[in-house]
From TrEMBL:
InterPro entries: AAA_dom, DNA_Partitioning_ATPase, P-loop_NTPase
Name the UniProt record assigns to this protein: ParA family protein
Pfam families noted in UniProt: AAA_31
Signal peptide segment: none
Residue intervals of the AAA domain: 160-324
Coiled-coil segments on the chain, per record: none
């Protein structure tokens, strides 16, 4: 059944109750949920969301059990403007985020905001929340339902994370390797990708030589992508057990000093080459895919960010440019990528996760901390001047009541640096390093 007539006949100033009664029962059915698979006013553990739905399994009806919700829908009247960037939009998104974080929301994977003029789909992967579509105009409601339904019915298993800062040496490779090791020990399936053919540092960190041609063949679909992936195995010396994650090694044939100069790579590798190649791996095979991105804004970094759901931005407490670059990545580079994804694929593109300080000493002097926060203040002000609120990206615990300057961080540890010399992830070797990265993974990614 088409929902178009319902939208066409909706009062121009439809209230929330109008949207609720006229549209929602049909909208929920069109998304593929029967009446007994949908609960109105569902207790998320952090407030009541307008609807929760979940497919019935066996003879357990969601409407009776109310356990394991899968999708939340928050309804607004037309007086709430849900176009991106509007204060009403931010308020509605914050509300949905709050519900996603409620105690009863662990199983939730999707959320929808709708007011019958606009609708947007959001994804929740573990603890990470990001828009799965742009804000869409309800004048094409049947198309919207089709898009949402396709997404909801086949969620990608993996979260794809690009680790990026166009300032060099801030810990991208170190973070990639140790996060992969920590998540592996936490029983997640992880793939890491060395997308820097000029440095090939990620393979080097694990003592693995770069490939020759394999990645290029996978990206241009000349070969199965599985042929370019190998396992990295670590044997615990005393425990007679192994841990392993997968790696796609850098491809030396793509380095600029080899036959592929930047221009040739540009011609051969379409903007969506990495995203397209990763599709089957994202869908079913991994929980996390981390891409180690080169420190620039050129062919490889652009394709890496295009392939990502989220971007993790390391910076240094004593490295002004890395802090400025993190701000510029959020205000300038990511919007470019999002616009291109929207144009090419109709979806949203990567969002930034809160910036973290890598290699933070356990003590820094008061005067240095002051200088750093002043510099961050300038970055935030600059973002504000172009319409971005960067504060949550630097100070995730900041609220109106409690102006917390807490930043996420990884401590400076000699054991982490020594991993380089050993060519193994320090998180496999040292308990304290594992704990640091597993807490970090819990802050960003894991539900518990
Ligand atoms: N938390 C940490 N504690 C101690 N040493 C660290 C830490 N993080 C990174 N390092 C060290 O800092 C150096 C630079 O780190 P890394 O190679 O990860 O940076 P990068 O951002 O990948 O660099 P590039 O831009 O060249 O790719 C390495 O020698 C690494 O061992
Ligand atoms: Mg690196």
């Amino acid at each position: 059944m088409s929902l178009q007539p319902i939208i066409d006949n909706m009062p121009q100033k439809a209230s929330e109750a109008d949207v609720e009664t006229r549209l929602l029962p049909h909208f929920i059915r069109a998304l593929g949920f029967a009446e007994d698979e949908s609960v109105p006013s569902f207790d998320t553990g952090a407030g009541w969301v307008d609807h929760a739905t979940r497919r019935n399994t066996g003879d357990k009806k969601f409407v009776d059990s109310r356990q394991g919700p899968y999708l939340y829908i928050e309804v607004k009247g037309r007086h709430r403007n849900l176009t991106e960037g509007h204060p009403h939009y931010f308020a509605a998104f914050d509300q949905l985020k709050g519900y996603f974080e409620g105690d009863n929301s662990e199983s939730v994977q999707w959320g929808i905001l709708i007011n019958s003029l606009h609708a947007q789909l959001f994804r929740k992967h573990g603890k990470t929340i990001y828009p799965a579509t742009p804000c869409l105009d309800c004048s094409g409601i049947d198309e919207i339902v089709k898009t949402f339904r396709e997404r909801i019915e086949s969620p990608a298993r993996a979260l794809t994370v690009a680790i990026y800062n166009n300032k060099g040496g801030v810990g991208k490779t170190t973070t990639t390797v140790n996060l992969a090791a920590a998540l592996t020990l936490l029983k997640k399936r992880v793939l890491i990708i060395d997308f820097d053919p000029n440095q090939q540092d990620l393979g080097d960190a694990l003592n693995l030589p770069p490939s020759r041609g394999q990645m290029m063949d996978a990206l241009t679909k000349k070969a199965d992508i599985h042929d370019s992936i190998i396992p990295y195995e670590y044997e615990f010396p005393r425990a007679k057990r192994k841990a392993s994650f997968d790696i796609m090694l850098a491809d030396k044939s793509m380095a600029s000093d080899e036959e592929f100069t930047q221009d040739r790579v540009h011609q051969k590798l379409r903007l969506n080459a990495l995203l397209g190649a990763l599709q089957p791996l994202r869908q079913n095979e991994y929980d996390y895919i981390f891409i180690d991105v080169p420190p620039n804004w050129q062919v490889f970094s652009q394709r890496a960010l295009f392939a990502a759901d989220t971007v993790l931005l390391p910076a240094g407490h004593d490295n002004l440019h890395s802090l400025q670059n993190a701000g510029a990545a959020i205000t300038e580079l990511l919007p470019q990528v999002q616009a291109k994804r929207q144009k090419l694929l109709g979806d949203y593109g990567p969002i930034a996760l809160p910036v973290f300080l890598n290699g933070l000493p356990s003590k820094i002097s008061k005067s240095h901390a002051q200088l750093m926060h002043q510099a961050i203040g300038k970055v935030i002000d600059k973002g504000g001047a172009s319409g971005f609120d960067l504060r949550p990206y630097f100070y995730p615990k900041w609220t109106a009541d409690r102006q917390s300057l807490y930043m996420r961080h990884i401590r400076h540890m000699a054991h982490i640096a020594s991993g380089d010399f050993r060519h193994v992830p320090a998180a496999f070797v040292f308990r304290a390093v594992f704990e640091q990265y597993s807490n970090f993974a819990k802050d960003y990614f894991l539900w518990d």
